[in-house]
């Protein structure tokens, strides 16, 4: 076997360390150190490319799906609202099939009466001066009244029982 010996004299194309300029240490940010430490293999680049391609292909379909689900939810809400409207209108139609309800509405809305009935309309039965005195503030404290309500009720009943009959002028 041949013995290989190492020569003590090395030939290098680099300049010697004495002829180089001194280096100044520069602080690098942690982000730059992290970025230099990333090594991409062909497999990782292929997987990232497939991931981007998958997002590009699936994004329109997913947005269409979400939009359709929103439309379905809106239509279901509208269907529920329309069902409630149909129920309300059906109940109203059933009320209008009742003769008593029709007569009540005719009396209230059009002031219709049956033959032999007398209709009384009270229009502005209070004086405007009497309404102005009602604006007193309400207190939180309980107070006693000056008159006894039972005596006032009894006096009102007795005076109405003994009142003279009022005749209306015919005209």
Automatic annotation (TrEMBL):
Biological process, per Gene Ontology: cell division
Region (Disordered): 1-24
InterPro entries: FtsL/DivIC
Pfam families, per the entry: DivIC (PF04977)
TM annotation in the entry: 45-66
Keywords, alphabetical: Cell cycle, Cell division, Membrane, Transmembrane, Transmembrane helix
Keyword Transmembrane part of the UniProt annotation: yes
Segments of skewed composition (Polar residues): 1-19
Protein name per Swiss-Prot or TrEMBL: Cell division protein FtsB
Lineage: Bacteria, Bacillati, Actinomycetota, Actinomycetes, Micrococcales
